[in-house]
Each structure stands twice: as structure tokens, then as C-alpha cells.
Amino acid sequence: MRRLVKKNKAAFMLLFICNLFVAVLAFYVLPKRFFYDATLIAFDKGNEIGFLGSYPLTILFYKITGLRYLPFPLIALIQYPILAYVLYKIGVPATFDKINVKNLLVYLGFFMIAIFMSMPSKEFITYLYLALIVFIYKSESISFKKSIFLSLFLLGVLGAFYRPYFLLIPIIAFGMYLVCFINFKNKTLTTIFYGLCIAVFLSLSYGVLKGQYLSESSREVVNSGRVRSQDANSMIVSPLKPDTWYGETVGIVYGFFTVNFPVNGLKHLLSPQIIAFVIWQLLLFYILLVRFSRCLKNRKEQEYELWILLILFSYFIVQGVFEPDLGTAIRHKIGVFPLIYYALYYEHFRKELQ
């Protein structure tokens, strides 16, 4: 057993060291447009710094920590070890050194963390914040009910002060949980379907109050300004204009499938990064869907894993509302990677507690 443990941690360290080089060298390899958000955060030419909103708070964070004054490769050298250490503290599965689909997904995840966190990033803060939920779920001193309350509360706080769309996650997750108690022929797909229905209802309600539906006021606004730009090749464009209730409904469902089951992304043969994400996302979604189905059948025995998956699938649904393109979808998936990591290896972590 000791030999096996040494192998899994050696594999983790090797993966960390290799991708640390990737993170440091990313600045010299990636195109300039890749650093658009990072330069906004680092230089704050629009003087957006503040205490409310993702950009203002991120700019404030990088100013207080002094990271904004450092070269991007040095920021990568600081940030990437912190992110890897978080995963290490969550736990390294005994079979982490074995080559299988699940491990390959995580290996590629390490690479994507190195790419997207090698600069000032909103995802750096999201990643660290959401890792708190994993540590709450792993804590033996926090009861199940209290851990669920704390996780939903933390998501609500993140939505209220940082990223508004996170406010939808607790609502959708709790709604999907209630659906779990109803007997359906295919409970897995039905639960996700009702999650989408809740998202549509929230968007239409928002439209009644504000005059614009959620995807219309977010995804469409972002995409309208870059139709003919270099970033337009992976844009998520709804088949119907989302300025009617049925157009918004189609847009949310289309966005969900495009982001989480992106077979249409296979047409981007000249963009290997998109093809890699499509394959990664398809395999990830399938594995999590199978686990979700199993948890729904054994709700009481796997209650913690069920709630992690409810939060993840709620997030996937919310992505279908807001994500403007596949590139941004990849970046945001990495922001929730601690939850993905915990969900993929939950069986290992459950055995640790037994």
C-alpha cells in the first residue's frame, strides 16, 4: 500500500512540475488576445477597482496582494503552486498514477489550469473560493445538513458580491433536489430537464422585471460586439433571437447542450484547443452523468456526492444561459475544477472517511 501511495503522489508531483513550466511559459506562447481580461485586471485603465462585481473585486485583490505589479510569468509561478496545493490537500487518489479515462481528464485539467491561471484571473479567486465547499464536505466536524446550508450560502454570497449568475445555482440545485423525491421512469434526465425549466422560469421572470431576459442581457450583449472578430469562431449563437419567451427558452436549452455536449464544436478542425475541449467536455459530462444517475438511485448512501453533482449540474445549466463562446466556457469550467475533482474521485474520499 505504501508503495502505491508513493506512486500516486509521485505522479501528482510530476504532473505539477511539468505544468508549472507550462504556466510560466504561457505568457511567451499564447496570443495577445488571450490576455485581454488579465491586462484589464492588472492595469485597471478604466479605474474599475471596487468592492462589488467580479472585475472591481478581482482588481482590488490583485492590488492588495501586490500581484498586479509582477510580470505575468512570476504571477504564474506563484498562483499555480497554490492551486495545485489545494488539490493536494483535497486528496490524491491511490490510483492517480494509473492511466484511465478519469485520470486523463484530470491530467488535462492540470494543463488547463496552467494555461488559464498563468495570469491575473477572476477564475483564480473563484477556484479558491469554491474549494471551501469541498473542504466543508470533507470535514467530519460539520454535519451533513450544516454542510449543505453552508455550501448554498457560500454560492449565494459569491453571486451577491462577485458573479451574479452564481445566485441561480442554489435555487436550481435545491429545485432539482426536490425533484429527486418524485418517481420518474428516467429520474436522471428528468431532474436535469426540470433544472433547465427552473433556469428558463428565472430568466423569464427576470425579463418581466427588467425588460430583457438573462441570456439576452448577457450572452447576446457580449457577442453582438464581436461578430466579425477573431473570437467569433467559437461563439454560441442561439437559433432564435432571445427577445421573446420562446426564443429565450430555445436559447437556454441550446446553450446548455452547446456548452456541455458540444458535438457541434467538432467542426473547428483547425482549432485544436477547441477540439481538445470538446473531447474533454464530452467525456467529463458522460462520467458525471453516470455518477449522478447512481447517486439518485442511492440518495441516502451517497448524499454528499449527490449535492456536489447537483451544484455542478446547476452550474452547467447556468453556463447555458450566460456563456458567450466555447473558449470562455473552458475558462469558467476551470474555475469550478475543485468541485469537478472532488466529484470524479468521491469514491476515494468516501473510503478515507470510513
Radius of gyration: 20 Å
The rough form would be described as globular
Strand count, sense and closure of the main sheet? none
Classify the beta-strand content into a percent band.
under 5%
The helix-and-strand class reads: mainly alpha
Compute the average pLDDT: 90
> How would you name the oligomeric state of the polypeptide chains in this document?
single chain
How many E-type strands?
Answer: 0
The first-to-last residue Cα distance is 17 Å
What proportion of the residues is helical, as a percent range?
over 70%
Taken in chain order, the helices and strands follow as HHHHHHHHHHHHHHHHH
Tally of helical segments: 17
> Low-confidence stretches at least 5 residues in length (pLDDT < 50)?
none
